Amino acid sequence: MNDFAPDRLRNALSDLAQEVQPVDLQDRALSASRRIAVSRAVVASVAAVAVLAIGGWAVVGMSQLKRNAQPLAPAASGTVSATSTPSVSAPPVGPDSDRSWVGPYVGSFSGHGYHFTIDADGSGQLRYRTYINCQNPQAVAQQPGVPCEDPDTSLAGRVTFQLVRRDDRVYAHITESNDVAFHGDLVVRLLRQGIVAIDGPHAALTGCADGMAPVPPACGGP
Fold first, then answer.
1. Which of 51, 81, 138, 159 has the maximum number of C-beta atoms within 10 A of its C-beta?
2. Are residues 57 and 107 located together in one domain of the fold?
3. What pTM, to 2 d.p., does this model score?
């Protein structure tokens, strides 16, 4: 015999029905849908803020790079930068910058076959005869590097010099010459007022000041 009678089944189902609470599935579905929508909206907002922040920092970074990359503006004309080096004029030849000692040597001097001048700044020029005839090829060949003379250029030798003083001695420092024999420094001596001697490579060239009477044998006319 089956002990599970229909009455007992009905009673069990009735008890179960009394314990079950009604559920509104639509409300739950709508509530869940709203929560999902809110969550998505929050996520989207956060993402948008992050994108804007990243974009802002990128713009600031590009602007900074552009400013750093801009070339420096050229300095205005007439201004001198702090690191510029002023030009320095070359010092005079020799250690003596006081040129007052040049005074006694200044003038125009002549001797036999030569003439030289000395200016107040110590610069000077020497012109002299070489006694080599340009029309004599043999004589020219025997003196290579020495200028020859023709009827129009009797003082063919030309030397430019600058007076310098070292160790209480005066020298004619040669700066330019067309004669290989004249180079380096030549001793200059003041024999007396108006008479100056330049010790040349072969002999002393003693000159008397122009307008001064010849003083043989120290100096004579050209």
1. 159
2. no
3. 0.54
Q: 176 and 124 share a domain?
A: yes
Q: How many domains does the chain have?
A: 2
- For residue 38, what are the domain limits? 28-66
How many whole angstroms separate alpha carbon 90 and alpha carbon 199?
A: 28
Co-location of 117 and 55 in the same domain: no
pLDDT digits (tens, 9 = 90+) for 35-89: 766 666 655 665 665 656 565 555 555 556 556 555 454 444 444 443 443 433 3
Torsion of CA 166, 170, 176, 178, to 10 degrees: -130
Query: Is 17 a member of any domain?
Result: no
CA atoms of 18 and 10, how far apart (whole Å): 12
**104: Cα separation from own chain's centroid:** 42
**Residues 172/161, Cβ–Cβ less than 8 Å:** yes
Of 66, 87, 118, the last residue of a domain is 66
Would residue 220 count as lying in a domain?
A: no
Tokens of 91: 């010092």
